[in-house]
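Retro notes, item 3 of 5
We never archived the inputs for the uracil complex last cycle. Fixing that now. Sequence and ligand:
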Amino acid sequence: MTEKESQIEALRAEALGCQDCGLWETRTNVVFGEGNPNSPLVLIGEGPGETEDKTGRPFVGRAGQLLDECLYACGIARKHIFITNVVRCRPTLVSETGRLQNRPPTADEASACVRGWLEPILGTIQPLVILCLGGPAASVVIHKGFKITSERGQFFESRYAPYAIAGLHPAYILRQEGAAYDHARDSLIADIEAARKKVVEAKKEPPRTLF
Ligand code: URA
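Structure as it came back at the time:
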């Protein structure tokens, strides 16, 4: 095991008992994140949905299947990268019919989880490139109030990585139909490919920190 791998495993073990916000009361599993902690590329989504909560793994529902297809189109497998979310527990609300539904995390839930877990994860991995999936992740990693429609596909400097870019969230793409679906899917593939190419370029640059 590399040092990064063992640090990530220690963080994961600690996160499994987290009660930093109220989401612990309704979660089935903590979805810490998974993949290769030695990867120069980290993908960040918003938060776990139903399938992720059941399995404890990020992006394993329908949105995850679409993400896998888009990664595959760029020659990337899960084992090559690390995938995590802004929050590690599924935010839910009870609908009028009594069913549990997903909801976006509140600002307090997001900031507790970013401070408690996302920052330590990124501080450990020290990625060269972060790809944010959707506006909420980009608002945390790139800048507040990120506008996914006008700002996706561009590189920004982030406090968490020298290069950060955002693409459309696969769950958003799944809600499109016909040509709009194809266009949205192609745009995510293009943003993944841009992130992959940026990793290749950034590896040739001198390291940004001495220690
Ligand atoms: N959507 C997300 O943002 N993250 C997941 O892990 C799954 C769906």
